[in-house]
Amino acid sequence: MKKYILKRILISLFTLLVITLVLFILLQLMPGSPFNDEKLTDEQRAALYAKYGLDKPLIVQFFKYVTRIFQGDFGVSYKISKNTPISTLIAQRLPVSIRIGGQAVFIGAVIGLVLGVVAAVWSHTIWDTLSTVISVLGVSIPSYVFALGLSYQLGFKMRLFPMLYSNTKVLASSVLPSIALCMFTLASIARFTRTEMIEALGSEYIQLAESKGIYGFRLIWKHALRNTLIPIITVLAPLIVDLMTGSLVVEKIFAIPGVGSLLVTAIQSNDYNVVISLSFIYSAMYIAIMLVVDLLYGVIDPRIRVSEAVHD
User: Residue 76's beta-bridge partner residues?
Assistant: First the structure.
């Protein structure tokens, strides 16, 4: 197991290093300059380049960039908040996106799992049809449409929840964006759970378990559901990163001060340093989630660890 974990960690670190190189190259290829102000003279512009180390050879810039970024130093903002460390900007906004995204993941995963199990156990019934309808709607309708509808009905007309995010009413104002964001996850998990559960319930090992007198809740949750978790986790993993790093449109609708809205502002103002830093964080979070998923594979299905050992 230790060798399995170590191998996955090394692969993840190498992948993150390659992504860092690609981000650095893209930063160099981006058109224009962070100092495009026409009021700046050539001497002033040269002084700014020297101040931020942009006058150094590319290879020197890259090694400094890698050293800083792996230490959590993403440099400073050139436009949004001049000379403010980007780590400060992200530290103010990332927890908000993670909290709302985490709530959306939890709600979507739990309800989706229950809907999928219910649809599989009572397939070809009204419950199966209802679950299918919810899944189709959740996949087909964009999250910002749900956000607008929830904001109008529950926020404006019924006044049950705040229409805009408020730091003084964190829990209440995060309900609507969390529900809007969770719908796609809920629908995807329900759909995959139903498919995998129907296949599992018709398999030989379930028939063997039933012949041993195992029925009901124990049969479903201990035997059938466990064998469907790997494809479900595979589907859920990238959705977790998408939700926890913020939805651009949903954050705008509810005025959420998260990293999604920060990314939009950075792109609009050509603050390339912020854009690249957020891209690195997105990549790091995605790799971390996939690493956890890889390790969960080995825990859920020991045959994977055995297969790895044989190939090694």
Answer: 85
